[in-house]
Specification:
binds 2-acetamido-2-deoxy-beta-D-glucopyranose, single chain, 521 residues, 11 strands, 6-stranded mixed sheet
């Protein structure tokens, strides 16, 4: 009751002017980097989401057209996996998986698949493969490419090898390419590699030419001593540029072949999903550290990221920008690579703090809360930032906006762009909540009724703009289920738009249709 009286006083003060207050200039320092800040603010929601989803299988699968790069590092001692047809230690450039199940898929006989590790040629979704499916039988085919039917072949009967490697030094020169960047699709998942880094256009785009892509990326990164490129598909992986540098070869166990008994693995894709599900919210184990302060994102630039395919306008593309625009961004990536490691701001942690405070409360306010619950919840969220001795709403909005951002000590120019983006998101949340609060406390409302539409619409419009992948999560699934979202090369359109808990039967049924999400037409 005390609060209610005070709030009414508060509402009398400066409220309407406060709501329209533009984003405040940084309280934390002033950027020297002029160009880009307006783009960073304009694309604030996308940059926020890229930071939040980085190195997470979940968000990278849903917002699959990554537009950003980050430097990343790994400590000594990290175990990584590679599936192939031979016992010999890999030389030169190849693929390494962070998850066992990912690499096991590639541990096939010579004709079971082509050479290469996760994502390698002949890997999932290679040219001419049938649509992704979930049965282990068609897995066999899916990974088989054109030689798949040669089951009588000696090599195929033998099965391949699972190699394990271990980093034997700190690996500090990795470039993380965000989104579903190892997904060989024409939806735009490869734009940042092929168009931006490799300057390829139209017919020269290799699409499935993974070996060529890997070699070109490594050649491009060589002047900067790049050890490899971290990308995501069904599992997070690394294109490792030189296997004889930075890795100890630990083991090469032969896989069971067609004739080996007692090794039935009928839950193939289901178990693969279990492995990925464990990484939905992060790769875990401290295996990769992202240097957020080195982020270079297409969202920082005045580039036209509109998708020419108007049916997928929500997906950003790099098809419209000019060569010089792309060249300028490529130069900035190269400038970041030429730097020695900076002191990184843990921007993802800040994004997490914001998401975890609001993710459940906003939909509750927008859909379920009665008037009294709405008022009570919004007071929980906002009262903290109000000084009841000085009832100025714009001060309260500023405090609310900057609360979690105060943890950041920005130093690089990229830090200031990320800060501008996160501040835009945080300010939008805080000013929208204060605006909803004004509506709720300025009229007499029946406690048990649902709130006025103008209040809930403010919140639901903001939810649509924020578009957090958190809101697509399945919730807890039963022990015999996994939360299925479309992850290249798996999943249907329905799995992309409405991820859901599925048991092994349901996963197979969905995967078998002609509705594979990742291939069109
Ligand atoms: C939110 O993101 C999803 C996944 O990329 C997309 O399909 C949807 O259109 C986006 N919604 C809005 C309102 O931008
Ligand atoms: C990128 O490709 C275009 C032709 O498509 C060429 O004119 C330009 O010089 C290339 N840029 C670089 C940096 O190689
Ligand atoms: C941006 O690109 C889209 C798709 O290519 C195009 O339709 C649109 O006209 C472009 N917008 C501007 C402002 O150039
Ligand atoms: C999966 O769930 C469906 C529907 O509830 C059920 O019919 C089916 O038997 C279940 N499969 C397994 C392997 O439990």
């Amino acid at each position: 009751m005390l609060a209610k009286g005070s709030l009414l006083v508060l509402l009398g003060c400066k409220l309407s002017s406060a709501i329209s207050t533009p984003i405040s200039q940084h309280v934390l320092g002033s950027p020297e980097f002029g160009a880009g800040q307006s783009s960073a603010i304009e694309n604030g929601n996308h940059i926020f989401n890229a930071v939040h989803s980085s190195m997470r299988q979940w968000g990278s699968s849903i917002q699959h057209n990554g537009m950003s790069f980050f430097l990343a590092s790994m400590p000594e001692g990290v175990m990584m996996y590679h599936g192939t047809h031979t016992a010999e230690r890999v030389k030169g450039m190849q693929w390494l998986a962070f998850e066992i199940e990912h690499a096991e898929n590639f541990a096939r006989g010579r004709f079971g698949r082509g050479p290469g590790g996760p994502g390698g040629p002949g890997g999932p979704g290679g040219p001419g493969d049938p649509p992704p499916s979930a049965s282990s039988k068609s897995d066999e085919k899916r990974h088989g490419g054109s030689g798949a039917s040669k089951l009588n072949d000696e090599d195929e009967q033998k099965g391949g090898y699972l190699h394990m490697y271990r980093t034997n030094r700190a690996i500090t020169r990795l470039l993380y390419i965000d989104g579903m960047s190892a997904g060989k699709t024409d939806l735009g998942t490869l734009d940042t590699q092929d168009i931006l880094l490799l300057n390829m256009t139209g017919d020269s785009l290799p699409m499935h030419g993974e070996h060529e892509r890997g070699l070109k990326l490594c050649a491009w990164g060589k002047p900067y001593n790049i050890d490899g490129f971290i990308r995501t598909e069904a599992g997070i992986e690394i294109i490792w540029c030189e296997f004889e540098d930075g890795l100890d070869f630990i083991s090469h166990n032969r896989r069971p072949g067609a004739k080996d008994q007692g090794v039935e693995d009928s839950l193939g894709t289901f178990e693969y999903y279990r492995a990925m599900e464990a990484r939905y919210q992060g790769i875990a184990g401290g295996r990769v550290t992202v240097d957020y302060s080195s982020m270079v994102s297409a969202f920082f630039y005045q580039m036209n990221l509109t998708n020419p395919d108007s049916e997928r306008s929500e997906l950003p593309r790099l098809l419209a920008p000019t060569n010089s625009e792309l060249g300028a961004m490529r130069k900035d990536v190269e400038a970041v690579l030429a730097r020695t490691q900076s002191v990184s701001v843990h921007w993802q942690g800040i994004a997490d703090m914001i998401v975890s405070r609001y993710a459940l409360r906003l939909p509750y306010l927008a859909t379920k809360a009665t008037n009294s619950a709405f008022k009570s919840d919004i007071n929980t969220l906002l009262n903290t930032f109000i000084d009841y001795d000085n009832l100025f709403i714009d001060t309260a909005i500023k405090q609310c906006t900057h609360h979690y951002l105060r943890a950041a000590i920005p130093s690089t120019k990229e830090d200031f762009l990320i800060l501008a983006a996160l501040e835009k998101v945080s300010h939008t949340i805080c000013s929208t909540l204060f605006a909803a609060r004004e509506i709720m406390f300025s009229e007499k409302l029946d406690d048990q009724e649902m709130p006025p539409a103008k209040a809930t619409k403010l919140i639901s419009d903001m939810i649509a703009w924020l578009n957090w992948t958190e809101w697509k999560r399945c919730g807890a699934c039963a022990y015999d289920e996994v939360c299925v979202v479309a992850i290249w090369p798996f999943g249907s359109v329905e799995d992309h738009t409405h991820p859901s808990c599925q048991n092994s039967t349901q996963l197979q049924v969905r995967g078998h249709g002609g509705d594979g999400y990742w291939r069109r037409g």
